[in-house]
Amino acid sequence: MDQKPEGELIEVVMSPSKEELEEDAEVLRLKTLLYTPEEEKKVVRKFDLHILTFLCALYMLSYLDRGNIGNAKTAGMNKDLGMTDSQFQWLLTIFYISYIVFQWLTMLWKIFPPRFYVPCVVIAWGAISSCFAAANNWGGLMAMRFLLGVLEAGFGPGVPYYLTFFYYRHEVAWRTGIFMAVSPLSSAFAGALAYGITKNELAIENWRVLFLVEGLPTIVVGIIGFYAIQNEGRTCRFLTPREQDIAAARTIKQTGTPERENKFELSEIVSSFADLKNWCCMLMFFSINVSFASLPVYMPTIIEEMGYSSVNAQGLSAPPYILTTIVVLLASWLSDKYQVRSLFICGITVIGSVGYLLLAFIDTVGVRYFACFLIAVGIFPAVPLLITWSGNCHSSDGKKGMGFVLLQVVGQCGPLLGTRIFPASDGPRYQKGCLISFGFLAFTCILALVLRFHLQRLNKKLDGEYGQVDPDVRAAVEVGQTKENFRFIL
Questions:
Q1: Counting C-beta atoms within 10 Å of the first and last residue's C-beta, which end of the chain has fewer, N or C?
Q2: In angstroms, rounded to a whole number, what is the distance separating the alpha carbons of residues 119 and 283?
Q3: What CA–CA distance (Å, rounded) separates 282 from 273?
Q4: CA distance to 69, 310, 363, per residue, from 372 (Å)
Q5: Averaged confidence pLDDT in the chain
Q6: How far is CA 82 from CA 66, 139, 298, in A?
Q7: Which architecture does CATH list for 37-256+263-476?
């Protein structure tokens, strides 16, 4: 090295290592990878077929295992075990207490490989759910409901975040809608299944058979998960090497790197608590969940008290959910097509609000049953739209992940209220619970408009700094990219 004059600062530039050069070359290759729209669509279709389909199957089992307690009640569980109405309400509430306390498990989707983490969780909750069939007292049921809440907290809330590992933000509402459509569909299936079981005389109590039939398949599907769940796009075994490169290139467009980071930055965690966007989403999710949690478990009871037998009430609880499944898919598809979340949420919650008013003040059986359709349509479709919108509101992968955690922690407190606003003493009209649910749905509509106006203001600020952006370009821009083209979805 040449001698430098005395006093002059010497700048030592370290040569990049061979590994760093190879890594940079790989990133550059993927950034400049050329592929046709048809090739990309084929990759996305494979994500839908292999990943989304399996997640939907898991969520159906999850929703069946948490919601079958309501069907078990109408099948005679309370009577056989000598439980009071207050004890039954605690069975509903204890699930959500553990479900809320363990929402931090959502972060494990980012920290541990999903391929191993998810199947272990699924197998464990399937085993717990099957054990409900052996319960002989209220205390045993309480312990198992608590554990079920812990395990399901490690799965369901993290799935919308996991979907962003594979899909762009203008693709994810439709996929989240498909995933969440499973909840009303599973409620319809649960009602039909309960009807088929309870109308026959079996060797053991019907409600015990119900838990076994819905719990044991979860263990089997969980074992399949070790093969079906994938960690990220570039390692999917169902993709060809060329398709794996395309998946990696899509990941670079989302996060700036071909591999997703498995850690959270402290600064992102702190800033998430002070973000108005997060607070609007959290309060909306809380409000929706007041009804989202209570409707499936109380729908059979509400219909039964319209004058139907317990067996027929099980069957009549299915049609509202079948219609709702169609609406969930339609609303999610239209929301992605037009890149609008807020107006769809407002329209849907208004429909649900009308349904609760009809149920609270009208005695005619036909009108009350029609109100059940309006309520289901006004609750379930709003959930995937809101979860997707929450993910759209963040400009980094870490903030998005933390936003999902906060959304679930605060939002899942809603069921603590929702599961206790329909006591048996308020039947058959359940006016108090209906009016409380009406108020929270109306509040959700107002918050959606507040968040829309806030995001409009932020977009105008970005437009003023960087100029207008073509809508087609803006829709394709993901987190991790420059603010010049990134704009918030309204």
A1: N
A2: 31
A3: 11
A4: 20, 17, 13
A5: 78
A6: 21, 12, 19
A7: Up-down Bundle (1.20)
Q: How many residues does the chain have?
A: 490
Q: For 167-188, write each residue's pLDDT tens digit.
A: 887 787 788 878 877 776 776 6
Q: How far apart are CA 404 and CA 416, in angstroms?
A: 19
Nearest Cα residue to 87 out of 129, 143, 139: 139
Measured distance CA(446)–CA(450) in Å, rounded:
6
- What are the tens digits of pLDDT across the range 399-442? 666 777 778 778 878 877 877 787 777 767 778 888 888 999 99
Nearest to 451 by CA among 411, 394, 412, 490: 490
pLDDT at 413: 81
- The 8-class DSSP code of residue 317 comes to T
The contacts of residue 147 (CB under 8 Å, 6+ apart) are: 98, 128
Query: With 50 as the cut, is the pLDDT of residue 21 above it?
Result: no
Which residue matches tokens 């059979």?
300
Among residues 244, 296, 282, the alpha carbon closest in space to that of 410 is found at 282
- Distance of alpha carbon 35 from alpha carbon 32, whole angstroms: 10
Sign for the pseudo-dihedral over CA of 388, 394, 395, 401: negative
pLDDT one-digit tens code per residue, 95-146: 888 888 887 787 787 778 888 999 999 999 889 988 888 888 888 889 999 9
Per domain, the residue ranges of the chain are 37-256+263-476
CA–CA dist 349, 261 (Å, integer): 36
